[in-house]
């Protein structure tokens, strides 16, 4: 997988950088809530625990046992190992559809015509449906109902198609294959991933970051979490996932570090792994524009998901106190009318 991602998502013929971008260590345990962007209220959602509680809301509650605690520590130890050997994590994520890298190659070729792109899209009926559905979303505000591949390509443009293909390439990574923990959490992980990628791309210009790199960073940021859930599938014998705050903080710190190391292994542009690690607001890369964009995106998405799930009121100060630019992105993240 890393070869085609290196060539196609990197924007050019990729090779390992002579001097790797600095990589922060796994983020430390949270010592308190992280402010949502632009908010001045004192009441704030906790970016670590609230996200984990939202993600595991369907998990059955169970009293902690010594065996479960041992298994949880084994998961952390295995994540530590994978951080040092991210290539080993590749076997825990699915492969991408073959048509996606072919299309991305064509998008890098300025000589490729719209007709060429249309022919390649037409080879995958699911991709055709997604392309036309995307062109008809309020985001693009098409003047009339889009019904053909050619019309959809015209509405999206090359950059819109590139983001759609990136999303289609990453969706299988958050698939429902695996055991009960992965199957249960996968739909929520993908909802979080998709919204984070969109929000990051929308906030990137104001931060001085590249929107497509921000989109890729958003798509990559949850990948370590998928790996962790697959590890839980193999180690836990109950439906419940650990809820201890110290463990949750340690777990999400490691999954973030693993996602960054996988991004480095796949030779994505160096700002992407640095942004994944810096997004929580700590470490050397936290000051980088891409990290700032991803960090704002993650906090806005958390607010959006908490409001949509009923865990947070729409008029909560954490929402009403958002800065205007962040409030606009928050509204863009609302679920489409009629969706679940």
UniProtKB/TrEMBL annotation:
Occurrences of domain HDOD (ranges): 93-282
Superkingdom, taxonomy of origin: Bacteria
Skewed-composition ranges (Pro residues): 19-36
Region (Disordered): 13-45
Transmembrane regions: none
Pfam families: HDOD
PANTHER family: HDOD DOMAIN-CONTAINING PROTEIN, PTHR33525
Name of protein: HDOD domain-containing protein
Provenance organism: Massilia norwichensis
């Amino acid at each position: 997988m890393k070869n085609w991602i290196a060539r196609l998502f990197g924007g050019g013929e990729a090779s390992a950088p002579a001097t790797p971008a600095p990589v922060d260590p796994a983020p430390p345990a949270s010592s308190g809530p992280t402010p949502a962007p632009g908010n001045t209220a004192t009441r704030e959602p906790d970016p670590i625990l609230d996200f984990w509680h939202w993600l595991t809301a369907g998990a059955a509650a169970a009293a902690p046992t010594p065996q479960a605690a041992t298994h949880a520590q084994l998961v952390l130890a295995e994540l530590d190992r994978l951080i040092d050997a991210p290539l080993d994590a590749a076997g825990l994520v699915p492969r991408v559809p073959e048509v996606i890298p072919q299309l991305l190659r064509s998008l890098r070729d300025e000589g490729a015509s719209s007709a060429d792109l249309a022919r390649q899209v037409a080879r995958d009926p699911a991709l055709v449906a997604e392309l036309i559905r995307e062109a008809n979303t309020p985001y693009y505000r098409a003047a009339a109902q889009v019904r053909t591949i050619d019309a959809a390509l015209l509405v999206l443009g090359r950059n819109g198609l590139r983001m759609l293909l990136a999303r289609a390439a990453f969706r299988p990574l958050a698939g429902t294959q695996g055991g009960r923990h992965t199957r249960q959490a996968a739909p929520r992980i993908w909802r979080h991933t998709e919204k984070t990628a969109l929000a990051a791309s929308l906030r990137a210009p104001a931060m001085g970051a590249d929107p497509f790199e921000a989109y890729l960073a958003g798509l990559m940021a949850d990948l370590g979490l998928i790996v962790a859930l697959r590890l839980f599938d193999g180690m836990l014998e109950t439906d419940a996932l650990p809820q201890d705050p110290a463990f949750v903080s340690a777990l999400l710190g490691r999954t973030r570090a693993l996602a960054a190391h996988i991004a480095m292994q796949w030779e994505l542009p160096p700002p992407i792994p640095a942004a994944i690690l810096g997004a929580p607001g700590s470490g050397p890369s936290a000051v980088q524009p891409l990290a700032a964009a991803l960090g704002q995106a993650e906090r806005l998405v958390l607010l959006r998901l908490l409001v949509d799930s009923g865990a947070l009121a729409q008029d909560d100060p954490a929402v009403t106190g958002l800065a205007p630019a962040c409030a606009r992105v928050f509204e863009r993240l609302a679920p489409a009318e009629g969706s679940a």
